[in-house]
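User: I'm preparing a small set of examples for a lab meeting where we compare how different chains pack in three dimensions. I only have the primary sequence for this one, and I'd like the structure in token form so I can line it up with the others. Please keep the answer compact; I'll paste it straight into my notes.
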Amino acid sequence: MAEKKAISSTKKSAAKASSSASNTKSSISSTYDSTRRILKDMPLIGNLIAEFIGMFLLTAAFIEMQGSPLFVAFALGGIVLIVGGVSGAHVNPAVTIGSWVTRKMNWVYALGYIVAQLLGATVAYLVLNTFLHAAPSTATAAAPTLLHAATIPKGHEWYIFFTELIGTAILVLGVATALRYKKNRIVAAFAAAFAISLALYVALTLNTVLLQGSTEANVILTFLNPAIAFAANGLSWNTWPLVIYVVAPILGGIAGFLIQDFLHSQDKVACDCEDCK
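Assistant: Understood. Below is the structure token output for the 277-residue chain.
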């Protein structure tokens, strides 16, 4: 009799545990479904999350790969494939401002994108810096440092300004083309990757001569992205850093969109992008 009671008690306990687990799964599933509905009903939130993730990945790749055009191109191509269908993968305030100026997005989205991009770039730099400082140090090796902005050579400010402007214009021209093919992510990824690779190659080549003889380690003059320049300590309240790393990319971004709009209007080949459907 006692054994039957024990068995019955064990079955009841198992049933309660199973019911509790089932309720927990149901609660998790319900929470997940409600979160999906919220994001679907509020697309701006999803776009901002996508921009944050994309900017985090691009900044990490840019800093870790020392701004190498090839590796950064692969990174941007992957980012377009991951989040391009959500936000368009601007991942650059210059792209967002150029898009806003040419009336392809409203100011609410533009402001939100820029904030998300700055946060994504900053968090990426902080995470990399945390891991760097956590690495064991040795007495014989110099302490490693992350890629950061070089000191702007005096007398060459306008040279760097036009390098940033031209490089960003090339980059945004390709990204603006990619944005027209939001549904065809392969084409968009290829266009964005090719554009950033070419833009970085041109800008880095032009600025290499200015860094010859520099005693600083892991420095760069070329960013083509105000958010990455901000994260890499390239910005300050001095005039030239703001003009070079903020004003020049913004002007280049606007120019890139205007040139792309003109070329698209002159294209005689049937286009299947979203704007032409």
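A couple of notes for your slides: The CA atoms of residues 176 and 257 lie 6 Å apart. The longest strand covers residues 148-149.

User: Perfect, thanks.
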